Amino acid sequence: MNIRAFPVKGAGLGLRRALLGPLRSHGLDAVDFMEVAPENWMGVGGRYGKALREFTRAVPFVCHGLSLSIGGPSPLDETFLHRLKQFLDEHEIRCYSEHLSYCTDDGHLYDLMPIPFTAEAVDYVVDRVRRVQDILERRIALENVSYYAAPGAEMDEIEFINAVLDQADCDLLLDVNNIYVNSINHRYDARDFLKSLPGHRIAYGHIAGHYNEAEDLIVDTHGADVIPGVWDILEEAYRVFGVFPTLLERDFNIPPVEELMTEVHQITALQEKYQINDSPTQEKAPGRKQA
């Protein structure tokens, strides 16, 4: 029997500073793992630093980066990467993920920009991923991102993602909301796209809400409840790939903790529904260090 290995397990919740107090009061019984953006916490001391340590000692953590800019034209910020490695080690972070996009060009652009879907871009990104993994001494996971234009595309989005993951030999952070958003904005079948992803590379997943700008334009905001159509894609992902760790993202318009936990419980319920037909899982060693 094949045993699938993941860095964490179960249903997770993104930790935001606004949630520190409410989560202390509510408790973490329903939360199997948590996630932070390392840029928001690296070098932070005082009461916030102490609070983070309290949470990272209580439950397993993963990190989802904001500023690596893996496809950016500027050189990799290796000083940042060495600081990041120290943070990951210090808090025994189980997995580090980033966006398959870029956000810098002689300075931060404060948005996630689409990498051109070209063979040249694949080679460029692959070299940078390998360098990041060498410095961090870890495999990393790249997230399929939402995008609103595809400048200079010479291949499909799915071809680009698969080529990068395969040639860089890195993992996938599967964001089911981004699949839904892109399927509406770029008019493709979400389930066909999902089934074309490399399930064996999934490290964990994201689920989130979005904003309907128009009938044919959705904006990925993480500022609303998850809609039924996105839950359907997550369920399909479990059916196709088996159950994988999945985390709820909520970045603003944050409701009371009890409402967030309702969605966390919904993740757990779907996982339990499909776990019976899935191979058992085991946790990887912290950091999933490379040999």
Describe this structure in words.
Helix content is 38%, strand content 19%. With 291 residues, it is of the alpha/beta class. It has one domain (4-288): TIM Barrel (Alpha-Beta Barrel). An eight-stranded parallel beta barrel has the order 2-3-4-5-8-9-10-13. α2 (46-58) links the parallel β3 (33-36) and β4. The longest helix has 19 residues, at 257-275. The two termini are 25 Å apart.
Give the helices and strands, then pairings:
Layout: E1 4-6, E2 11-14, H1 20-26, E3 33-36, H2 46-58, E4 61-64, H3 78-90, E5 96-99, E6 102-104, E7 108-113, H4 119-136, E8 141-143, H5 157-168, E9 171-175, H6 176-185, H7 190-195, E10 202-207, E11 211-214, E12 217-219, H8 228-241, E13 246-248, H9 257-275, E14 281-283
Helix pairs in contact: 4-5, 6-8
Pick out its properties.
14 strands, two-stranded parallel ribbon, TIM Barrel, alpha/beta, 9 helices, eight-stranded parallel beta barrel, 291 residues
Summarize the structure.
By secondary structure, the chain is α/β, with parallel strands linked by helices. It is built from nine helices and 14 strands. It has a single domain, classed as TIM Barrel, CATH 3.20.20.150.
